[in-house]
Amino acid sequence: MAKIKRIGVLTSGGDCAGLNAVIRAVTCRAVRTYGWEVYGIKDGTAGLMNRPLEYMKLGLNAMSGDILRAGGTFLGTVNKGDPFNFPLPDGSRRNRIKEIADGYHELGLAVLIVIGGDGSQALIRRICQQGNMKMIGVPKTIDNDVRYTEYAVGFTTAVNTAVEALDRLAPTAASHHRVMILEAMGRGAGHLALNAGIAGGADIILIPEIRYTIDGVVTKIRHVHEEGRNHSLIVVAEGCHTENGETLTTTQSGGEVRFGGIGAYLSAAINKALNIETRITVLGHVQRGGIPAARDRVIASAFGIHAVDLVAQSKFDRMVAWHDRGVIDVPLASVVEGPRPVDPQGPIVHTARGLGIYMGE
Ligand code: F6P
What domains appear along the chain, each with residue ranges and CATH number? Predict the structure, then answer.
């Protein structure tokens, strides 16, 4: 067994439910089984970049059941500010990779366990390669678009939240004979909207991977009425384009671009074509917060244990993944090739279409 004494763990990218459960499992395994030290790095790579270094030693404090139950990440996270081209207060930009690498070596870390989505895994892998740092990845994201894993931490909780929203929207839609549009998160991938839409009884699910027409949407609403129901539910992923392929975004004060507006676009288009009321619910960060679902806690725990076991075997540059009811590990090199979109020919889309849900042409 390799002589490991101290490992680092950080969360990177948008938060989600279940991150604390991973940190807890990593700490339990490393401290209890291997007798190592665990340093939790604060706010993603910022904790290694800033001086003084921002970290906390994790021990009994990180092993409690309260941590398992808590949403968010008690280490903090960031999803902006590329360390290769980091924006400084004076408007200039600087490559800050050396500071991160120096921080890692100064702390005497043997490896960094990175809990992040595909973007974070790719970015921090590059940092690790340049800074002579070792890395193990743990996939998390409500978008569930990390390659080679059936589940990423946080996805199940987000789906449950969106389904609960549909459960609440359905009766009020029926009372007022309305079309209810639920705008779910999901940048380039529609896994969240698709799964929530099926589980929540949607009539129409629109995702970035499948082109749709307004005519198709309107025709489906008409059919629902002809079948004797005077209300309908639409779930649309925020990253969906307009009928003409336009991307709807907003730019934040720091220049960061975020999706938004597709629900309003659909509402206007439906209003124009049909004499029917529509209402929009933008679920937003409600999907990211909250108490992690049991499945997320189990997956998070399994990932954390496996990640530390990989370190014990000196197997680095790998990501843990959920496959066929268990945990495996895959090369990070293949994970960082890009996100995993919904397969338009896959079984979940087939299920939606089989139910008569309109998903595009
Ligand atoms: O990638 C996860 C995600 O929640 C996306 O679904 C969403 O577009 C994005 O993060 C939102 O990021 P922010 O927290 O910066 O608004």
Answer: 6-153+292-335 (3.40.50.450), 158-289 (3.40.50.460)
Tens-place pLDDT, residues 191-246: 999 999 999 999 999 999 999 999 999 999 999 999 999 999 999 999 999 999 99
Please indicate whether residue 185, judged by its CB atom, sits closer than 6 Å to ligand 1: yes
Q: Tell me, in angstroms, the distance from the centre of ligand 1 to residue 193's CA.
A: 14
> Tens digits of per-residue pLDDT, 256-265?
899 999 999 9
Query: Which residue, among 99, 185, 203, has the nearest Cα to 143 in the 3D structure?
Result: 185
Ligand 1 touching residue 140 (CB < 6 A): no
C-alpha angle 164/170/175, rounded to 5°? 145
Number of other residues whose CB lies within 10 A of the CB of residue 223: 14
**CA distance to 33, 220, 292, 301, 310, per residue, from 18 (Å):** 22, 37, 5, 9, 21
Atom of ligand 1 nearest to the CA of 287: 4
Q: How confident is the model at residue 30 (pLDDT cuts 50, 70, 90)?
A: very high
Average pLDDT over the chain reads 96
Active-site residue flag, 296: no
Distance 194 CA to ligand 1 centre (A): 17
> Which tokens in the block code for residue 275?
């004499």
Of 143, 145, 203, 329, which one is the catalytic site residue?
143
Answer whether 157 contacts ligand 1 (Cβ < 6 A): no
pLDDT at 2: 53
Cα–Cα distance between 98 and 85 in angstroms, integer? 12
Task: List, for residues 302-327, the tens digit of each pLDDT value.
Answer: 999 999 999 999 999 999 999 999 99
Task: Report which residue type is found at 215.
Answer: D
For ligand 1, is residue 29 a contact (CB within 6 Å)? no
* 312 backbone dihedrals φ, ψ, rounded to 5°: -60, -30
